[in-house]
Amino acid sequence: MSKMFVKTGDTVMVLSGKSKGVKGEVIAVSPKENKVIVKKVNVVTKHVKPRKMGDQGGLVQVESALYASKVQLVCPKCGEATRVGHNNSKRVCKKCGNEF
Predict the structure, then answer these.
(1) Which residues share a beta bridge with 58?
(2) Distance in angstroms (rounded) separating the CA atoms of residues 77 and 36
(3) Backbone phi, psi, residue 18, to 5°
(4) What average pLDDT does range 49-53 have in this prediction?
(5) What is the rounded distance in angstroms from the CA atom of residue 95 to the CA atom of residue 98?
(6) d(CA 14, CA 90)
(7) What confidence score (pLDDT) does residue 100 get?
(8) Mean per-residue pLDDT for 45-56?
């Protein structure tokens, strides 16, 4: 299990794939698989079966997981995608030096 540089609620930018360049908020983080789920990114269509009487089945749009290496944190101060440094257990923007 590796430590993640991304936390739930962070704003990230996608670096590669069909959603390249899109900014979004992290919904969930899975350190065991080294994956993240980003809002409105990597959307897939899922077939859902009705489970109870009266439930509706059909096609549902759901966000799928991305590898954490395919996303980069967006600095809240300078607004650019940046690598993350650490200073006294706080995350630091490598471009402007802002702590977040």
Answers:
(1) 48
(2) 23
(3) -70, -20
(4) 91
(5) 8
(6) 23
(7) 84
(8) 92
